[in-house]
Amino acid sequence: MGQPVREYLLTLCVTVAVTYLLTGPVRKFAIAAGAMPEIRARDVHREPTPRLGGIAMFGGLCAGLLVADHLRNLNGVFELSNEPRALLSGAALIWLVGVLDDKFELDALIKLGAQMISAGVMVMQGLTILWIPVPGIGTVPLTQWQGNLLTVALVVITINAVNFVDGLDGLAAGMVCIAAAALFLYAYRIWFGYGIESAAPATLFAAILMGMCLGFLPHNMHPARIFMGDSGSMLIGLVLAASAISLTGQVDPDALALFAGGERNATHAMLPAYIPLILPLTIIAIPMADLVLAIVRRTWNGQSPFAADRGHLHHRLLELGHSHSRAVLIMYFWSGLIAFGTVAYSVHSASMWIVLAIAALSAVGLTLLLLPRFTPRAPRWAYGLVPPRYRHAARAAEAAAEAAARNASGTEPEPVRPIAAGVSGVNGATAVGPRSRFPDRRKAGSTR
Questions:
Q1: Which residues pair with 134 in a beta bridge?
Q2: What is the pLDDT of residues 293-345, one digit of tens each?
């Protein structure tokens, strides 16, 4: 089992590296191509930021699939299943439409049609739901039309859920990465724990999806240097949906009967993997809730469900007084709690400790929501472990606080040298970094 783990780790690292290295050149290309739309009323960032980050993420997807195809243990996924080719075909189509939208702002109905066509392309190549496992009943086989329609619906819903939550720096990539990590753990357990090879494609897709998000996050964390745009959000939404469909709709619960003591027990044992068909995705329950609430809110107000507004969950957190980074971390917390709590419950569903731990962590999350003004600060000795952008911001905030204190005491303030983006002032020394092109990038309070 150690060899497959190393091969998954290699695939993950290659995907991370390719995505990370491509994002810099893609950012320059986006600026040169003019893919930097003006600030809209619903946006929370304060300066034009290049899009098209999905180009780098698609490059990472292709690199991950290419490496996996040449590894001994993962090569069988490509020989025994057509799902990787189906995923690549659908991803290429939705990515191309997303690139055009990032540049030319396509109509919402055109994007919806493209999402349905991309899902249809995957269905035609075999990536579809074959049956629905129902707890207490067993496996319910679907007709071809039923499976195809359900697959298309799940893909479209998941893509739009991820697209809706892409409103703060690093939010969509981080939440999808958390969901992919939970899905990978569960799929890996089904494949190598029970020896069910039909779970292999979902395991590979989840590992590659993690790499795509992890490689892009360093460029997308607040303050973001580049946005993934629809080319990225629709792409990772489709890959996440394909992973869940491959695991849930094609893994036969009858194969688990020998391990779980019967078909009904096997169905109950796999319940956390079946819930995605109902919600449709438990592992991204937060984006799904945001999607449903947005549709209800806009319809109630007489607007189109595709009309943009500032009523999303992350906007609500900002209105409560949470900072940009804090709002993102809170959304990460709840996503991780739901996703990994579901995985833990699937392993030991009879353990009361898991339920108590989830309840305790939920109480912690509610407490964090009620303390929007509390800002944790790293001690000075730990500054070396903090990312440079946050070290610089903390020092700038301390300098501003000292200047305000001197003004309040009536003393003459010392002249403060302005610090531009990419400039770190430590003991009077400054160094201009590559981000000095946007002078107000590190302005206090800059949010997307």
A1: 138
A2: 777 776 777 776 666 655 566 566 666 666 777 888 888 888 888 888 777 77
Q: Which two tokens stand for residue 207?
A: 């590992």
Q: Which residues pair with 141 in a beta bridge?
A: 131
Coil, helix or strand at residue 254 = helix
Q: Which helix (H) or strand (E) covers residue 138, if one does?
A: strand 138-141
Question: Cα 50 to the chain's mean position, in Å?
Answer: 19
pLDDT band per the 50, 70, 90 thresholds, residue 362: confident
CA distance 150 to 160: 16
Long-range pairs of 301-306 with CB within 8 A, sequence gap ≥ 24: 304/108, 306/108, 306/109, 306/112
Three-state secondary structure call for residue 140: strand
DSSP, collapsed to helix, strand or coil, labels residue 3 as helix
What is this structure's pTM?
0.76
> Could you give the CA distance from residue 360 to residue 354 in angstroms, rounded to a whole number?
10
Residues 389-437: tens digit of each pLDDT: 566 666 776 777 777 777 776 655 455 444 443 333 333 343 434 444 4
* Cα dist from 213 to 172, 174, 206, 209, whole Å: 9, 7, 11, 6
Q: How far is CA 199 from CA 86, 102, 317, in A?
A: 16, 34, 37
3-state secondary structure of 325: helix
